[in-house]
């Protein structure tokens, strides 16, 4: 090859960016966002006539400081991990899945149905598997609707997923209220099979908290998502589509097929999150259990920088804020935590490059 | 030197993270001269000009304009002081008229409210006749040719009172007659006393138009010479730091061209493509490229070359006609299926199509062939690494780190990644679209050699290039595209810049053989 005339000087290397550089790149934006939120929190607390130090100490004591509070953080982080993973999976393909709430609800409902249908005494592993498949399938179906409308007709997934939230939640409400509820309530009867062991069953100090085996499932799903995104051809294609759809198309990747797959799987992941409440906590499906978890999943995905393990960490962070709000309620209104969550999300949306890129991409502007 | 320089930049340092774009760079431009600023891609020319235009502040060094220290000024200051930068990519509003674009941001208004359109048009007409940049003020930008749009860009900076004009690769999109017109305009402006800095890759242009030359290499200014005292070969040597052959090299004679192989190359029959506005952007085009042949397509940009390549590559749907590779009809096949049929493609838009900028070099080297680098759906990372090591060595990709993001590479090295990938897979037909655009002299030479080697191996190559020299030097036959048709197809022996130029602007029409 004529290439030899120029070659020979360069020894190929495989030097990834230094660990420190990557860590900084990944962590600084969320940490800055957190700092900004803390400052805003200080001002809010001060304006309420309380001492920030005291309130924050209370917040930590009420969450990580005792077994019950920590158990509640674990429980809340579990659902948020599922919805956060769902949102980040879509974002990796360049899609904004705002429908986490209805996908989660549909998944929880499907899991409850299976738990009711399966006979009592079904082995746990088997029951869990069936319930999860059902939950994933239900969430996947809800997720595939915007995917189909986008790839077939070009409908924007943000609009469709938001609207589907209303439709799916209303349908579930109608179904529960009309057909399946225990009188005087808005929930189904208790399931016969698939009840997950709670943390309190292992360590009695966690008594009363809802933390359960679903957390392990969430971590396993996160690992699977990581493997899919970064080790498989499907993940290669999916990220390529998310980064540069035109280049993906040039590389022989069917952008529509990837979008279809990404939103369907995204919905399935959110749907599987339903097991945390239904199998792990209440053992029935209750109308409105998913309320807010889908939207908070967006924040979790953003703060977690769309990395499966980052999402888990971010889920713990938001779960802490949410549980902490209850702990400090005696001193400042717990709505303060909602304000802080909002501030974190806005700060992250401003600081995180992925978000800027996606927004830029959404506006269709080229970037030389 | 008694005269105060129009621009004096000295000891300029500018870093972006670990990358040092300028290292003690300097530039001195005298008033009323046409000064060429040359250098390979990534040599730091644009960075230097951005600091002159106030878009960036230098880390060290100082900038003087007409003797006044203006280091670290803002874009507003720069414009007020008469610096006008004409960017490579036009910044015009396509739905507005020429006059509206020119007055954008400083519109004349009646009673301070309503746009005084008549006065805007009058101002434009006046400026037009003073400079020789003739253009009707009421025409819409979207109706203009590329050359005309560029005239509007130049008028725009002059309208804002620019006395120092910086033009970034202005001829990249122009046909030879348009280039000659541009030169005439620049000379007229110079004679009027304006100062012009011309950033360019093309050494023939430098010699033709400039009176002084500053050469940059690796962020530093390596020479400042009078044009009359140098030669293109010397400038090229200064740019690259070693001897470069300026012609595309000797023709490698095709081996085994005598039809012993089953390959039939590329055949296109009566192809038509309808563009976004319902117009036929490719209009009933037929041609073939035989194995061991390079068919060059010349033409002013926007005459259907992009659409033709995209249609052949499967990235744009066709409205009529057939495309065959080695006798197999691929007209209705997907991009992936075309790859398998033996099609390879170096796209013209490197940054959006050819590379995924956030992916590593190693991952970019498997784009389009990722299927062959995975088993049971899992990417085989060892083979991806092996493949990257091979490509980096044989194509001299720098820096030679396979895990670097493609974004971090210079334009020339990014293009080497693309060429390495497209040449590295089994193929019989290669579409090479602007294969050396924005690539430095050293890499151009290398890419040309690669194309000639592929030709010698019996590949059929369709080459589209805005560089007439490139088309002339590499092609066996040359087609000229004009308004979606082949205006002519000539053996390269019968083609010359002048002959092609007439077909390119449509003054001469031939039969598309």
Using the alpha-carbon principal axes, give the shape of chain A. globular
Poorly predicted tracts of residues of chain A: 1-8, 362-368
For the record, the CATH architecture of the largest domain in chain B stands as 3-Layer(aba) Sandwich
Can you give the mean pLDDT of chain A? 88
Structural class of chain A: mainly alpha
CATH level-1 class of the largest domain in chain B: Alpha Beta
The CATH topology annotation of the largest domain in chain B reads as Rossmann fold
Strand order across the biggest sheet of chain B? Answer: 6-9-10-3-11-12
Task: Describe this entry's structure for a reader.
The complex is a heterodimer of chains A (368) and B (513). Chain A has 368 residues and is mainly alpha-helical. Chain A has one domain: ABC transporter involved in vitamin B12 uptake, BtuC. The longest helix of chain A has 30 residues, at 124-153. Chain A has 16 helices and no strands. Helix content of chain A is 71%, strand content 0%. The two termini of chain A are 33 Å apart. Chain A is globular and about 60 Å long. By secondary structure, chain B is α/β, with parallel strands linked by helices. Chain B folds into two domains: 7-240, Rossmann fold, CATH 3.40.50.300; 277-504, P-loop containing nucleotide triphosphate hydrolases (Rossmann fold, 3-Layer(aba) Sandwich). In chain B, 32% of the residues lie in helices and 26% in strands. Chain B contains 17 helices and 24 strands. Chain B has a six-stranded mixed sheet with strand order 6-9-10-3-11-12, sandwiched between helices. Chain B has a six-stranded mixed sheet with strand order 18-21-22-15-23-24, sandwiched between helices. A four-stranded antiparallel sheet of chain B has the order 2-1-4-5, with helices on one face. In chain B, a hairpin with a 2-residue loop joins strand 19 (374-375) and strand 20 (378-379). In chain B, helix 14 packs parallel to helix 15. At the A-B interface, helix 9 and helix 10 of A face helix 10, helix 11, strand 20, helix 13 and helix 15 of B.
């Amino acid at each position: 090859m004529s290439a030899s005339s120029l070659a020979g000087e360069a020894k190929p290397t495989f030097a990834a960016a230094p660990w420190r550089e990557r860590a900084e790149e990944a962590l600084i934006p969320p940490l800055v966002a957190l700092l900004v939120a803390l400052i805003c929190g200080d001002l809010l607390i001060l304006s309420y006539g309380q001492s920030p130090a005291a309130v924050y100490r209370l917040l930590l004591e009420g969450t990580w400081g005792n077994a019950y509070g920590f158990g509640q953080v674990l429980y809340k982080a579990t659902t948020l991990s599922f919805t956060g993973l769902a949102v980040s999976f879509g974002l990796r393909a360049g899609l904004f899945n705002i429908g986490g709430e209805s996908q989660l609800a549909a998944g929880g409902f499907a899991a409850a149905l299976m738990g009711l249908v399966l006979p009592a005494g079904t082995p746990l592993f088997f029951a869990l598997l069936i319930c999860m498949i059902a939950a994933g399938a239900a969430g996947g179906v809800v997720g595939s609707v915007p995917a189909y409308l986008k790839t077939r007709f070009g409908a924007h997934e943000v609009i469709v997923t938001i609207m589907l939230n209303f439709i799916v939640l209303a349908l579930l409400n109608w179904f529960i209220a009309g057909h399946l509820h225990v009188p005087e309530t808005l929930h189904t009867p208790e399931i016969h099979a698939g009840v997950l062991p709670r943390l309190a069953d292992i360590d009695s100090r966690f008594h009363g908290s809802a933390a359960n085996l679903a957390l392990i499932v969430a971590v396993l799903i996160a690992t699977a998502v990581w493997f899919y995104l970064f080790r498989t051809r499907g993940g290669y294609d999916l990220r390529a589509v998310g980064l540069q759809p035109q280049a993906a198309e040039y590389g022989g990747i069917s952008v529509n097929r990837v979008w279809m797959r990404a939103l369907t799987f995204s919905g399935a992941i959110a749907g599987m999150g339903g097991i945390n409440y239904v199998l792990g906590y209440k053992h029935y499906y209750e109308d409105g259990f998913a309320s807010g978890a889908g939207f908070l999943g967006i924040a979790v995905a953003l703060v977690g920088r769309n990395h499966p393990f980052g999402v888990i960490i971010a889920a713990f962070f938001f779960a802490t804020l949410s549980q902490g709000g209850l702990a400090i309620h005696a001193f400042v209104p717990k709505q303060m935590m909602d304000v802080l969550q909002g501030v974190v999300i806005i700060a992250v949306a401003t600081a995180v490059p992925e978000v800027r890129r996606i927004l830029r991409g959404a506006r269709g502007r080229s970037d030389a | 030197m008694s005269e105060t320089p129009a621009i004096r930049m000295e000891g300029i340092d500018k870093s972006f993270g670990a990358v040092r774009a300028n290292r003690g760079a300097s530039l001195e431009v005298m008033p009323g001269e046409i000064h060429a600023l040359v250098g390979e891609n990534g040599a730091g020319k644009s960075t230097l000009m951005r600091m002159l235009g106030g878009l960036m502040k230098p880390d060290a060094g100082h900038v003087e304009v007409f003797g006044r220290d203006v280091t670290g000024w803002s874009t507003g200051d720069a414009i007020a002081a008469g610096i006008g930068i004409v960017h490579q990519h036009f910044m015009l509003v396509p739905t507005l008229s020429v006059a509206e674009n020119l007055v954008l941001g400083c519109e004349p208004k009646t009673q301070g409210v309503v746009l005084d359109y008549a006065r805007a048009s009058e101002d434009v007409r006046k400026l037009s006749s003073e400079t020789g940049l003739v253009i009707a003020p009421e025409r819409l930008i979207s109706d203009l040719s590329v050359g005309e749009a560029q005239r509007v860009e130049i008028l725009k900076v002059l309208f804002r009172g620019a006395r120092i004009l910086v033009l970034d690769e202005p001829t990249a999109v122009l046909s030879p007659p348009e280039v000659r017109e541009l030169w005439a305009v620049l000379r007229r402006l110079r004679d009027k006393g304006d100062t012009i800095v011309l950033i360019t890759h093309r050494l023939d242009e430098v010699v033709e138009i400039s009176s002084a030359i500053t050469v940059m290499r690796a962020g530093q200014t390596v020479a400042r010479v009078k044009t009359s005292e140098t030669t293109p070969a010397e400038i090229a040597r200064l740019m690259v730091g070693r001897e470069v052959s300026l012609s595309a090299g000797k023709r490698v004679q095709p081996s085994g061209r005598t039809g012993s192989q089953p390959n039939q190359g590329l055949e296109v029959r009566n192809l038509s493509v309808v563009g976004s506005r319902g117009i036929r952007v490719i209009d009933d085009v037929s041609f073939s490229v035989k194995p061991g042949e390079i068919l060059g397509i010349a033409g002013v940009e926007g005459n259907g070359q992009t659409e033709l390549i995209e249609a052949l590559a499967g990235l744009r749907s066709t409205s009529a006609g057939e495309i065959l590779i080695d006798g197999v009809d691929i007209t209705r096949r997907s991009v992936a299926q075309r790859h398998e049929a033996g099609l390879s493609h170096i796209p013209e838009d490197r940054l959006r199509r050819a590379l995924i900028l956030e992916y590593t070099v190693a991952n970019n080297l498997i784009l389009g062939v990722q299927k062959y680098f995975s088993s049971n759906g899992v990417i085989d990372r060892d083979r991806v690494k092996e493949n990257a090591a091979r490509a980096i060595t044989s194509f001299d990709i720098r820096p030679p780190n396979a895990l670097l993001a493609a974004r971090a590479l210079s334009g020339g090295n990014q293009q080497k990644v693309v060429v390495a990938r497209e040449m590295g897979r089994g193929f019989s037909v290669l579409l090479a679209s602007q294969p050396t655009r924005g690539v430095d002299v050293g890499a151009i030479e290398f890419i040309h050699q690669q194309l000639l080697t592929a030709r010698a191996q019996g590949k059929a190559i369709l080459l589209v290039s805005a560089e007439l020299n490139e088309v002339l030097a590499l092609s066996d036959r040359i087609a000229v595209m004009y308004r979606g048709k082949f205006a002519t197809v000539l053996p390269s022996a019968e083609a010359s810049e002048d002959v092609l130029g007439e077909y390119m602007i449509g003054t001469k029409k031939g039969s598309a053989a």
